[in-house]
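Re: the pair you flagged

First of the two:
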Amino acid sequence: MRYYTQKYLLKLGAILIGGLGCTFCVQAQITRLPHADTTSGNYFGTSVALDGPRAIVGASGEASCGVGAGAAYIFELVDSTGYWHEKARLIPSDCEEGLAFGRKVALDGNVALVAGSQEYFANERSNAVYVFERDDTGNWIQTGRLTSTGHNREGPAGAAVAVHNDRILITTAGDATLGNQLHGTAYIYEKVDSSWSLKHKITGSDDVSAGIFGGNAVLHSNRLAVAGSAYFNRRAGSVYLFEYDRSGAWSEVARLGGIEGFFISLDLHGDELLVGQTGAGQNESGQATLFARDSTGAWVKTAILEPPSPYRKGAFGTEVALHGDRALVVGYDEQLRLNFNVDRVVYIFARSNGQWHYQGIIDIGEAAFGNSIDLYNQTALVGASGSTDAGAVYVIQIR
C-alpha cells in the first residue's frame, strides 16, 4: 500500500500520515533538500545525520575529484519558511578517486565527521574518518584525519562514526570472511588543546561466536553501544554496551545476546537503546527491540516494535532512529510473493502513557528510500540513494 506519490514530496506541504492498524494518525510536512548534482549513482543520501537545525548528507559516489571520490554537504534551516539551504560542500584534503568519502557521517553542533570507507570485509585499504569544524565565520574546516592503529585485519576504519560533546567514536568492522573471522575495535578520540587525540581502544568481551564486534556503533554522552553481527554464520549476534566511569575508563556493562540480523542497526538516546533485527520475528519479518537501563544499572528489554502487517523476510529493522518518545524503523510494506521485495518505507512509532504505538508510514514508492535515517525531536531526515538514479534526501516534520 502506498500513501504518497513523488509529486507530494517535491514541495512543502501538510501530508496525512496513516495506515491500516495505526492507533492514531498524525500530519507531517515534507520537503526535499536541494542538490544540484543529478548524476545517477552519486549516492547523495547514502548517509545522513541531523542535529537541530543543521544536517549533514553523504554523497559517496560523487565525482568530486575523481570517479567515486565522494563528497558531503552541510545544510541549515536558516529562516522561518521551513526551507533548508546548502551551507557547505566538504571534500577531504587528500581527496582521490575511489575514496567513497561520505559513506558514513555524524554531526554534533559545530563538529562533523565523514568517513572515506571502502568495503568492510577483507579489505587492506587504510580508510579514514575526517573531522570538520565550523569556525567563527561559519566556514567548515578540516581539523583532523583519524584512523585505526591496529593491524588491517581489524577491518577498515569508519565502519561506524559518532560524535557527542567533543568525543568521537569510530569503529573498524573486523573480518567477517568465512574461516578468518576477527573482531574489530572501537576507538575513542577526545579533543585536547584544539586537537583530536586517541584516548581509548575498546573491544568486546566475548569471542566471534557471539558476533563480530564493530560493524555498527552509537554514542550518547557517557555511553556507547557496539553491534556484533554473526554475519554469514546464521546465528544470533550481540550488542555490547559500555559506560565511562569515574576512573576515566570505559567499562563493558552489558552484552545483549540473541540479536538476529546480518547488519544490526542501532540508536542510543539517554537511557534507551533501539536495536533493529531484520532476521527476528515470524518468517524473519523483522522487529525493532527497545532496551532501557533500569535503576540498578541493568539493561532490560522494554518493548518490541513490529509492523502492523509482518511480511516474510520483510527487512523490518534495516535502519532505526530513536529520539525521546518517537522511533523510526525502515522495512518493506508489501509482499510480492517472490524472493525479494521492492519498495521500502519508514514506519513511525510514538510512545504515549508509557506504551509504544504504531502511527503510520512514509512511502514514496522507491526501493532506495530509507537507506539512511535520523531523528531529532519531531524532525526526521530520510535518504534515498541508489545506483540507477540521483540520490535524494527528505526532511519530514512530524506533528
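Second of the two:
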Amino acid sequence: MFPKITSYAISALLLLTLLPLQLRGAELKLTPGLAVKEEYNDNLFLTTTRGGRADFITTLTPSLEISSATERSRATLSGGLNQLLYARQDSLDASDYFVRSGIDWRLDPLLSVSAGASYLRDSRPDRFDQDTGLAQTVASSRQNYQLSGSYAVSEKSNLTLSYGYSQEDYAASTQLGTRVHSANLSQDYDLDSWLRQTKLMGTFGYQRSLTDVSQVDYYTLTIGLAGKLHELWGYSLNGGGNLIHSAFEQTVRGTSSTITSENLGWVGNLSLNYSGEKLNGSLGFSHDVSTASGRAGSTERTSVSANLGQRFSRELSASLNLIYSLNKTARNQFSSQTIDETRLSLGCGLKYDISNDMALEGGYRFTNVDYNYGSSPSSAVQNVFMLRLTMVLDLMDL
C-alpha cells in the first residue's frame, strides 16, 4: 500500500514543478490540520432488512496543505490520512489516504492553463458515488487527472479545451473497475450589451467509459445561458442532446458474443442561487447520463437538489440540504445490467467557529434508497448523526 501511495504523492509533487513558479515574493502557506469526527450510523451496509448493522465510527484525519501564489500562478498540494475506527465492527477498521494537487498559470493576458491530480482510497461501506448517487459498499481507490486551457478569442469570448481521466478500482470482484476518458470543447460569449451580466455558452463533449466487459462512448452538444437576475440572484441554464454508443460482452451457455446499441437522448441542467449577507441558497435540476462506477456501463440520472445556509452570527451558522436522484437504465441500453434505483437524502447541520483556527460541527442525515427491481421492490433506510472538531494552523503566519 505505501509504495502505491508514495507513487501518487510523487506524481503530485512533480505536477507542482512542471511549471516555473517563482516563489520569491509569492504568497506561501504551510497549513497542517487535524479533524476528529464521531458518527453513529444505524445501517452501515444499507441493508433492506430491518435491524441493519449499527455502529459508532471514529475518524481521525491529520492533513497537510502547501500552497503558493503569485500574480500569474497558483499551486496547491495537500494530503492526509483518514483513520477509521469502528466500535463494534472492528474488522472494518482501516487507514485511508488522499492526495490532491493543482496548478493554475496565466501564460499571458490571453492564455491560461490548469492541471490537477488526485488519489483517494475509501473503504467506508456507507458511501454514495459522487457522480450518480448510487450506493457503494465496497472499498475502492480512485485517481483523477485533469488538464485544461482557456484562450481569450476576443474581449467578449473565451474558448476552453479540457481533458480528464479517472480510474476506480475495487477490493471485491463483485464490482467492476472503471476507466473514463473525457474531453470537452466550449466557448462562451458575453451578452452584456443585451442582457446584463449574462453569458451564452456552447459545449461539445465526448466521454469513453470502459470496464472489462463494456465500452460506452458518449457524445453531447449543449447550449445555455448563465448570469444574474438580480444583485443577489444568479442562474445557469443549459440543454441539448446526446448520442450514446454501447458495446457489451455477454456469455450464454459458454458462447461469448458482443451486444451493441445506440441511443439518442437529451441533457438538461438548471440552477438558481441566492447569495445574501447572511442567507444563501440554491435550487438545481439535472438530467444526464453518467458512468455507473463499479457497474457494467452507464446510467441515466435525473436529480433535484436544494441547499439553504443561514449565518446567525460571525461564529454560528446552519445548513439544510435535500437531494433526490433517479438512476434508471434498461438492460443492454447503455449498461449490461438493469439499474433502477432512487435515493432521497435530507440533511441539516450546525457549525460554530470557536476561533479562526478551530470549528465544531454537528449534523444529521436521513437517506432512503429504493431498489426497484423485479416484482418485489425493496428499500433501505439510513440515519447518521455526526459531531466533528476541526483544527487548522497556517505556520507561515506564526
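Residues 16-25 have pLDDT under 50 and may be disordered.

-B.
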